[in-house]
Amino acid sequence: MMDTQKNKKALEHGLISGSSAKRKTLVSVNLGNYGSTGTIMREIGAIAEKEGYNCYCAYPISRSIKPPKSNDMIICSLVLRKMAEILSKYTGFRGIWLVFSTWNTLRKIKKHDPTIIHLHNLHNTYINLPMLFRYIKKHNISTIWTLHDCWSFTGRCPHFGMAQCGKWQTGCGDCPYPKESYPQALVDKTAKMWKLKKKWFTGVKDMTIVTPSRWLADLAQESYLHDYPVKVIYNGIDLNVFKPTEGSFRRKYKIENKYIILGVAFSWGAAKGLDVFIELSKRLDEKEYQIVLVGTNDSVDEQLPDNIISVHRTQDQKELAEIYTAADLFVNPTREEVLGLVNIEALACGTPVVTFNSGGSPECIDETCGSVVSCDDIDALENEIIRITKEKPFSQEACLKRAEAFDQDKLFREYVSLYEDRICF
Q: N or C: where does the chain have the smaller number of CB atoms within 10 Å of the terminal CB?
């Protein structure tokens, strides 16, 4: 009986040879076509196209947008998005605006008659959420939702680690998350938004949740999303780019004879452990150690002591690979992390990692290529830095071996396999 049902669904989507049914179609939805989540969306789509899918990406206009492709769907203009953002900021309600833009987008999606809808980041108030999920439920479309943070099951925040808040498990309200933090809300409507999101996001007949770490998967299964199957597919990196790459970084900064302690982030602050590096700069011997932070800006520079080298954000991945390669140890004192691709990039360049036991960051490494210390235990972190740089317990070969598990091509193909499983379910 089950095989008959699978064959029937496969026949409907043209998976059985000789069928005259339509070609498989993937529609992906994200807050943009840029950055980490936009890149993931586009790379998965590229692999799916090679496997015979018609692929369409839906996202709003933004200042950081990459040139759209001919089959992309623009959800709303920059002006409308800004208006929705202002309304959200001052009312505390998100995802209920842009009715016409969403209606128009859903009309386009319906025209393409998708076999699979793949949702990514739905926050940043660029689409009407009840309309989107009502459409999915009405048409019973197989849906994959990749959670890139915790936002899907909280009243507002994408992370609650630093706030040490567990209200998301039973219902939010009296929110400790800072009002000015993303996504901004000057009025606390988290109790109502938690209830609304639970109503919108539950009840989809055929939806699979994907998370990039076991840590986030466990949280999702404790939330109101617990009825959905949850699959872990790690985020990957391009191993053709991130690999041992010799360069002139040490010579440029005249630090040929020092241990380089490297930190990389693209939004430095307490969540990424900026204060930890500042403290380490006071403890580590300047004659032996040099801390280098990548991804900084003028504002961050004002907070840094003179003995930390600051490298502003670079778009040149080869240059970044050269810095990773030059480092003796990559340190990630993150306090809120879903996975931590920077850990993997460092490993792929042959550099071992030490990280706080926070979020999914420890999942990037194993006993062959790095170590984990308790979050905020700076004494333990300092001791590990000294031990690893002096004793060198982790070889370059072991780091490279571990990085192979995060080959993006292999991991993104897991998504296409998941699509096939859902179609044939």
A: N
Quick one: three-class SS letters along 114-146?
Answer: CCEEEECCCCCCCCCHHHHHHHHHHHCCEEEEE
- Please classify residue 316 by burial: count the beta carbons closer than 10 Å to its beta carbon, then call 0-12 exposed, 13-18 middle and 19+ buried: exposed
Which of 63-67's residues contact partners 24+ apart within 8 Å by CB, and which partners?
64/32, 64/34, 64/35, 65/32, 65/33, 65/34, 66/33, 66/34, 66/38
Alpha carbon distance 37, 181 (integer Å): 20
In this chain, the answer to whether the domains covering 2-236+408-423 and 249-406 adopt an identical fold is yes
Chain segment 19-61, per-residue pLDDT in tens: 445 589 999 999 999 989 999 999 999 999 999 999 999 999 9
Q: Is 384 helix (H, G, I), strand (E, B) or coil?
A: helix
Nearest to 152 by CA among 133, 136, 176: 133
C-alpha torsion sign, points 99, 103, 109, 115:
positive
Instruction: Write the CB contacts of 171 (distance below 8 Å, at least 6 apart in sequence).
Output: 155, 191, 194, 195
Domain range summary for the chain, segments of one domain joined by +: 2-236+408-423, 249-406
**What is the CATH code for 2-236+408-423?**
3.40.50.2000
Report pLDDT for 19: 41
Instruction: For residue 4, name the pLDDT band (cuts at 50, 70, 90).
Output: very low
Q: Residue 23: what pLDDT?
A: 80
Q: Are 288 and 259 in contact (CB under 8 A)?
A: yes
With both helix axes pointing from N to C terminus, report the angle between 341-348 and 396-403 in degrees, rounded to the nearest 10. 130
Hey, what's the torsion of the CAs at 199, 201, 202, 203, to 10 degrees? Answer: 100
Cα angle for residues 273, 247, 410 (degrees, 5° grid): 70
CATH 3.40.50.2000 fits 249-406, yes or no: yes
Task: Round to whole Å and give the CA distance between 23 and 21.
Answer: 7
172: three-class secondary structure by DSSP: coil
